[in-house]
Input
Amino acid sequence: MKGYGGRLLFVDCTTGSFHIEPLAAATARAFLGGNGLAARLLYDLVPAGVDAFDPANAVVFAVGPVTDTTVPGNSRACAVSKSPLTGLFFDSTFGGRFPATLKRTGFDAVVLTGRAPAPSYVAVDEQGAVLKPAAAVWGRSTRDAVTALVAAEGADADAVAIGPAGERGVRFAAMAHYWRNREAVAGRGGLGAVLGSKNVKALVVRGGRKTEVADPAALKALLDETREPLTKGTQALTTFGTPFLVGPINALGALGSYNLRSEVFAAARVIGGESMKEHYHDRDTTCLKCPVACGKQYAIRDGEFAGTRAKMPEYESIFALGPMLGIAEPEALIVANDLCDLQGLDTISMGVTLAFVCEALERGWLSPAEVGVPFGWGNWRGMLRLVEMTARREGFGDRLAEGAWRLAESIHPEATRLVYAVKRLELPAHSARALKGLSIGYATGTRGGSHHDTRPTPQYAPAFDRRSTQDKPAFAARSQHFTAVGDSLVMCRFPAER
Ligand code: SF4
Output
């Protein structure tokens, strides 16, 4: 079957055994791959009503027919599971080189179930899987773990790992993959915590199989046709990365700040793409074979954090750790973003949960003594400390680790009204008030508060009627169909939308 590895790998982490099944052509036609295929596997395998941390829950890593071809943005994979944050089906995609390497193993999906008896990692090659001891990397950051495991398995291997947050069951724990200077994070929904509940620190893949394209000439013609609009449409991403959005979205009155009490942030300019590039840009980074190269590495040259080299905070992370907390210190944002990635925390959920804490403190629903460290609007030192405490579930961090919704439920009968979340998933940086297509989109998306079901991008186009509710249900449905196909192929959203 062209476009596919044609095999599915099922690993029982309790026993370390595995089995391989063929991917039926009818299944591939019906679900494409990636998200769609993983949803089917999860539906078939995971008993209804099971807790996300139950060994019977599964974590599926899946790629699609487009992965490891010449399509721009093809090196993308889905991590899929039942989320400990929402209690619902959840998928989170990531790039780098890992997705192409997973495809080269000849498996379209790797399914992990059970719970390893001791900290382990799963090494997958073309023959199958081996569960190996991970005691040496348990407790270490995502980057340290990936670096050590790739050193152990060989430079042609790729790894995606959880950090201390995933090991401790933080409900919004992420997983991260590092390749050259590219850092790719499957951030949302707490899937890193599900991996941690299985005692699995990382998935490591290595393979050499090639993906055959059914009609290379037709694919080339299609790509030739879309090359120019792609280059033009992604210029700002290539130049600045996603932080270029800060200025225009703030100008629209749609940049959430102070736990969304406002949608304008006075200091937006200093944390926007242009200013960040001018002061901190070190180098561009890219996922495998992607012409857009939207990734940037930053370097802090002076001051308290001099010597820091870290991934550029994406627009969403700037919003959640910056304006939502009233923080306008770009260097604190770079450090906080890096800390979240290393500890394996979703930046959006972390920031929005802390924004709720700021407002709860102000209302007297939480006391400073309960929080345990000086914190409030604009206090970036408190933010950094609370991020660390969350990853370790230390002190008040143990309550933050439950996410904004559960924290609110525990402190005051009315507190959930102040939580910026849908289906218990903290919302991203695209305002449902400003973009009416997203209000219906967040309410109906499978994941709830995610901007990767109904998409914000088309709604920022000058000709799009953002403020009226007219036709927005139809728009949201179309947009969700578009992302379902894109996530099943699996393709990066940025090139796919141009
Ligand atoms: S556009 Fe950016 S995130 Fe998407 S594949 Fe290219 S480099 Fe990766």
